[in-house]
Amino acid sequence: MSAHASTLTPPVSAGQVVFSATDIAKSFGPVAALSGVSIELRAGEVTALMGENGAGKSTLLKIITGDYQPDSGVLSLHGAETRFAEPRESRTSGIRVIAQEPEIIPHVSVAENIFVGLLGASGPVFRRRAVLEQAREALAEFGFAGVIAAETLGSELSAAQRQIVEIMRAVVDRPAVICFDEPTSSLGEEEVEILFRLIRRLRAEGIAIGYVSHRMNEIFQLADAITVLRDGKLVGTKRTEDTDHDDLVRMMVGRDLSQMFHREAIDPGDTVLELAGVSNEFVHDVSLTVAAGEVVGIAGLVGAGRSELLKTIVGDFRVESGTLSMGGTAVRFHTPADSIAAGIGFAPEERKAEALIMHRSVRDNIALAVLKRISRFSFVSSAREDELAEGYIKKLGIRTPSDRQLVKNLSGGNQQKVVLARWLSTTPRLLLLDEPTRGVDVGAKAEIYAIIDELAQQGVAVLVVSSELPEVLGLADRIYVMAGGRVTGVLPRANATEEAILALAMD
Question: Is the pTM higher than 0.90?
């Protein structure tokens, strides 16, 4: 064990229960978030926690971290009943939860972000040098040295690198229990493989691991056992070898979703969007078209320029050369407001940072793009705002106690539906979706796919960026593949395979 090893983990035998939550209940006002939920985390095993968004996974993790206290039920650590009044008590006891949305301090280095809260009281020069050296050693030990540098400022990190910093914070002192909450949602294939090697290594060292993910292939690669929640209740726990994909889906959603990727062939209408040789510092000589009623996918590896292309289309980044046309007319969007006025809706990848106002209500977030439409004499009509929000809450199945609920209190999948509701309310001609199902459970994915399909049938042009190859293959009528900011190929649905996409993505 390295110099970073902690004394928090007492000797345990493989398979021994390290942490358990038994018959946990938690309510928020009249809403029961958890009822009768139990889970066991065992030494040297990975236990997956699965369920639709809103099933109670996040609430359970916050009880484990001490952010919430259960209304009833028992928490046990190393066989002794315990209770965490605050997150510090959970961490001191040897429990770490790696959050899906990392909190990074922007103006300090990766090293200081990793060891935040653990820095000594020595002078700043000595401390900075010592912390940098410790971070370099830790990044090398855990396999991330080639992916992220200890000196890099937090403000300069990509989404994948921020997630790596969050992971490093948790593992450097080898706690007794580590829970991963959707850890691969921002990672590329290389980083995912490094993470999986790390998790297997931690498992071999006897650490009890919880793993929350909506990605079935990850669960079957990593998990020894799987606990499923539905509507805040425990459905059951199974050993991985005793279940399969279809069985887990039935446990999670209570219905068959085997056709959730299927879309009928379409006859596209007139071209809505056309790029001809569009270039800037992020993308180079990109040409593509999207027609009315067509779903066009953009695939590629992390860093290929896919998100940057969407931001170029909507005016976040300037078009330096080439032309962008809407409905056959060349346009130039100087700001995102210009693209909205032209009938474009854009749901970005980073929904919390770029799409939602987290401290405002569901109603406020849905109505944000159409305030003029629902106003009279410069005053927003509360009745029309209510009608709009309640209509989309019902249509999209947004799970919220009311439209006055703060959007920060919703699960990830329901937050994504709020983003979609905002743009659907504008009746867009073109909808740009960047990783629309990132961090979304299989049931909500099926619902989002149905929404996309319905929009296409209504004649909306849809451009989708997705890192999940089965998703882009199932949704798209055509797929543009990018690498290094360039389009390396275009695949019609009939010729598109995972192998063909990856070959072009690595061109």
Answer: no
